[in-house]
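User: Could you go from structure to sequence for me? I need the amino acid at each position, not a summary. C-alpha cells:
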C-alpha cells in the first residue's frame, strides 16, 4: 500500500513538473527561436548590446572619430552613458560637459582640449539657448550617424579668441 502511495505521489510530481515545463516552452517560444538563431550564428554574447540603440550609435562613432582625436560629450553624468561611450571609444580622449552649459564653456573646452568632435547623446534634452546657437555656428558640421544622438565635427580654425560669459 505504501509502495502505491509513493508511486502515485511520484506520478503527480512528474505530471506537475511536465505541465510547468510545457508552460515555460510555450511562454518563451518566441525568444527561444531568436536565441537558437544567435547561438548558431555565434553572436550569443551580443544579444543585449545589439538591441541597445546607444551601443549601435557608439559603435558607428568608432569609424567616424579617429583614434587620436578628442571629443566633447554633452550629457548628464548621472545617466552613465558618458562612461559607456568612453569605454566604447577608447583610446579617444573625452571631455564631459552638461547640456545646459553656455556656449562659452563649450568653446573654451574645444580650444583647451583640442576637441575635434561634439557628441550630443540626447538632442531633446533642455540645452541652453547659447549651446543651441553654437551648434548653428559654421564651426560645427553635422555628421550623419543613425541613432539616438548627434555628432558634430568641429573646425577649430573658425573659433577665435578667449571665451567669456
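Assistant: Here is the amino acid at each position, in order:
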Amino acid at each position: 500500500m505504501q509502495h502505491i502511495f509513493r508511486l502515485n505521489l511520484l506520478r503527480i510530481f512528474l505530471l506537475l513538473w511536465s505541465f510547468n515545463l510545457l508552460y515555460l516552452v510555450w511562454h518563451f517560444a518566441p525568444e527561444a527561436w531568436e536565441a537558437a538563431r544567435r547561438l548558431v550564428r555565434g553572436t550569443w554574447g551580443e544579444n543585449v548590446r545589439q538591441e541597445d540603440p546607444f551601443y549601435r550609435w557608439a559603435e558607428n562613432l568608432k569609424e567616424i572619430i579617429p583614434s587620436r582625436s578628442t571629443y566633447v560629450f554633452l550629457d548628464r553624468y548621472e545617466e552613465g552613458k558618458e562612461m559607456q561611450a568612453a569605454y566604447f571609444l577608447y583610446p579617444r580622449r573625452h571631455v564631459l560637459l552638461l547640456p545646459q552649459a553656455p556656449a562659452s564653456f563649450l568653446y573654451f573646452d574645444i580650444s583647451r582640449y583640442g576637441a575635434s568632435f561634439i557628441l550630443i547623446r540626447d538632442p531633446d534634452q533642455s540645452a541652453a539657448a547659447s549651446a543651441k546657437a553654437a551648434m548653428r555656428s559654421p564651426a560645427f558640421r553635422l555628421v550623419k550617424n543613425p541613432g539616438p544622438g548627434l555628432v558634430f565635427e568641429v573646425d577649430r580654425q573658425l573659433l577665435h579668441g578667449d571665451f567669456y560669459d
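One structural detail worth keeping in mind: Residues 111 and 160 are 9 Å apart (CA to CA).
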